[in-house]
Each structure stands twice: as C-alpha cells, then as structure tokens.
C-alpha cells in the first residue's frame, strides 16, 4: 500500500526492471526507487484507518494548475470507478482526471498514472499529494512492464485522454502551437531525437506531403510541402511563427480554422509517433484489464477516433458502452473551447481470454522516409 504519491522515473528506459537511483531527477534528491511525499500522507493514512473517504479538495485546483479535465462528469459516470479498485491513467497530464479517479477509489484503492512528459508529472505531483497515486514516466507500450513492476496482474479500468494539456500547448519553448512563437520542437518526451525542425528541414518533399495528408488530412499537402522545400533552400525553418506564416501564405482560410492547424497537427503526430503509440495501447489493453473492467479513451481528431472505434468493435474482448461517442456540452465548450473536438468512447472487458500482444520496441518506429 502506497502512502501518498509515489514517483517512479524513466521506466521507459528500463522496461522490465526497477528504476535505479541514477534514473531519478536530481532536483528531487532521491537515493532510492521510491519517494514518499509526506505532506498530506498522514491525513491519507488516518482516512485509511477509519475507512472514510479521502478528504475533499477544492475543485479550483483545476484553474490553479491551468488544466481543465475534459468531459469529466461523463468520464466518471461512464467508467464508474469504485472504492478499493485499481486503475491506470495512461495520460495523467496535469492530474485533472486522476485527482477525481483517486477520490472515487478512495484510500484503499490504487491509481497508477503514466505520462511520457516529465514536466506534466511535476504538475501532477503537486495536485495529487496525499492521494493513493503512483506516478510513472513511461509510454503506452511500457504499460505491461509498469504493472509488473508495481506487482499488478490486471486492473479494473484504464483512462486515456489523448489531448494535450493547456500547460503543454501554452509553453512556447515546446513549439506545439502556432499561437506562440517558439522553436520547432514538438516533442512530448525530451529524450526523443526527432523534432519538427528536423522533419521540415531534411525530409523530402514527397515525405512532407505524405505526412501532411495522412496525419493532418490536409488537402493542400503538396502545395505546402513544395513551399517548405523552396523556403529551406534559402534559409532553414526554425520557429513556429515562420512555419505558420509560410502555411498561411499558400493555403486559403476555411471558416474559423487557422490554415496552419492541420500542418501542426501532422507534425506533432509524426514527431511523437502518436498513432503508432495508440495502436500499441489498443492492442495491449485486453491483456491488462480484468473481465468486467472498463476503458475510456478521449480522442480529439478522426484519425484517433477511428482507431478506438474499430478496436472496441472486437467482440472477443469488448462490449461497447457508448454506441456513439460522447461529446462535450455547449456549456463545457463555452468554459473550455479546447474541449470542442473531444470524443469519449467507453468499452467493458468481456470474460473471454486475451490474445497476447507483445511489443518489444524500445522506441517508436519513425514514419517511412
């Protein structure tokens, strides 16, 4: 039983083994595998002894940390986390959904929260102090190894929010958004080698057009790719503003959507191998969710949603609980405009045995070159 928030780091780079002290961030001053965050731990322990629920925390924490969990009420109602259960949040982000999941499972429950972004784990740590949560820096494909390291054979449920946190989008140094000028980086995991700058400045025109079409569904993909190649012959592209202005100069505006939107989406997907990672997660889930357990996945564009829909149609493993995707209400969109494209699908694990889906890739494969 973990007393407070436990952090395990760099499991991705040590799959199947316990993280060593050398893997732990120096700023935490750690000397061993686990770190107990004492503020709030005594309060949590007292609640565990009395059998009462964990103490309530102000919902204003969402605004304080700059993160609003999308479709929160719909997630909690559809997944129905219960006291004493074991859950996994594979995209903990700032900890918005995780905080409410931890409240629902109570002091006797267990929440294992993953994220490949170390900065998001720092935000989650602040919010989740005193709750039965273990934070792990890991990618989707590491989930079986993470659970094995935690001594967990199967879980009662999994949540995946495939969107970006506001903290990520609003950080100029990440280069994820064209709203702020910053370097063409776009990596969620800083240990990845591939950046958006490397793609736009070195990939062939044909490959650029391909990823813009396949990952951004950009109808002007060839035109944009041609302009990128022409520009980099004169001077390489290094900033989000440069790229956004280039795209706007050759693509007509359609409605209220910025012409650069699809190009940036395509580059983010390529840099972080998002679709390959999602495919791995969907294949792994039948082997980690116990019969009767539930999985909820929030997607933000059709490329993700189609994959989730197709995977949940596999009647060997899943019973679909949302015949149509659940979308935000008008009131939620008014509060949080970034939620407008969110779609939630939920499925329940059937009693049939899973077919193993082993993945041993230490890194996501790069798109075709």
How does this model look, in words?
The protein has about 375 residues and is an alpha/beta fold. It has 2 domains: about 5-165 and about 275-350, 3-Layer(aba) Sandwich (Rossmann fold), CATH 3.40.50.150; about 175-270, Putative methyltransferase TM0872, insert domain (DNA polymerase, domain 1). Helix content is about 40%, strand content about 10%. The protein is built from 15 helices and 8 strands. The chain has helices at about 40-50, 60-65, 70-80, 95-105, 120-130, 145-150, 165-170, 195-200, 205-215, 220-235, 240-250, 260-270, 275-285, 300-310, 330-335; strands spanning about 5-10, 85-90, 110-115, 135, 155-160, 290-300, 320, 345-350. The protein has an 8-stranded mixed β-sheet with strand order 1-4-3-2-5-6-8-7, with helices on both faces. Helix 9 (about 205-215) crosses helix 12, helix 10 (about 220-235) packs across helix 11 and helix 13 (about 275-285) runs parallel beside helix 14. The chain is elongated.
Summarize the model shown.
This protein has 369 residues and is α/β, with parallel strands linked by helices. It is built from 15 helices and 8 strands. The chain is elongated.
Key features of this structure:
single chain, 8 strands, 8-stranded mixed β-sheet, Rossmann fold, elongated, alpha/beta, DNA polymerase, domain 1
- Overall number of structural domains: 2
Q: Which structural class should the secondary elements be placed in?
A: alpha/beta
Compressed to H and E, one letter per element, the order equals EHHHEHEHEHEHHHHHHHEHEHE
- Count the E strands: 8
Q: Order the strands across the largest sheet as they lie in space.
A: 1-4-3-2-5-6-8-7
User: How big is the Rg?
Assistant: 21 Å
Shape: elongated
Q: Pick out the low-confidence regions.
A: 9-65, 357-369
């Amino acid at each position: 039983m973990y007393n407070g928030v436990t952090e395990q780091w760099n499991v991705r780079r040590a799959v199947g083994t316990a993280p060593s002290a050398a893997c732990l961030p120096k700023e935490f001053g750690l000397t061993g595998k686990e770190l107990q965050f004492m503020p709030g731990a005594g309060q949590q322990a007292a609640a565990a002894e009395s059998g009462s629920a964990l103490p309530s925390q102000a919902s204003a924490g969402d605004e304080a940390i700059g993160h609003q969990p999308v479709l929160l009420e719909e997630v909690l109602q559809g997944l129905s986390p219960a006291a004493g259960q074991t859950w996994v949040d594979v995209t903990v982000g700032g900890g918005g959904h995780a905080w409410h999941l931890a409240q629902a499972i109570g002091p006797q429950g267990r929440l294992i929260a993953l994220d490949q972004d170390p900065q998001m784990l720092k935000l989650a740590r602040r919010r989740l102090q005193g709750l039965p949560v273990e934070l792990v820096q890991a990618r989707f494909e590491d989930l079986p190894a993470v659970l094995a390291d935690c001594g967990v054979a199967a879980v009662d449920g999994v949540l995946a929010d495939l969107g970006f946190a506001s903290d990520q989008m609003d950080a100029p140094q990440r280069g994820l958004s064209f709203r702020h000028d910053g370097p063409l980086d776009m990596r969620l995991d800083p240990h990845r080698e591939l950046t958006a700058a490397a793609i736009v400045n070195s990939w062939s025109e044909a490959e650029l057009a391909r990823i813009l079409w396949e990952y951004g569904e950009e109808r002007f993909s060839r035109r944009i790719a041609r302009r990128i190649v022409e520009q980099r012959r004169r001077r390489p592209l290094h900033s989000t503003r440069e790229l956004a202005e280039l795209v706007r100069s050759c693509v007509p505006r359609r409605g209220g959507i910025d012409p650069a939107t699809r190009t940036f989406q395509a580059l983010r997907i390529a840099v972080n191998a998002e679709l390959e990672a999602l495919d791995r997660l969907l294949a792994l889930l039948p082997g980690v969710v116990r019969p009767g357990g539930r999985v909820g996945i929030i997607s933000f564009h059709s490329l993700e949603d189609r994959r989730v829909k197709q995977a949940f149609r596999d009647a060997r493993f899943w019973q679909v609980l949302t015949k149509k995707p659940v979308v935000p209400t008008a009131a939620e969109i008014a509060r949080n405009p970034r939620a407008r494209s969110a779609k939630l699908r939920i499925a329940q694990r059937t009693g049939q045995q899973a077919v193993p889906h082993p993945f041993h890739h230490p890194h996501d494969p790069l798109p075709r070159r």
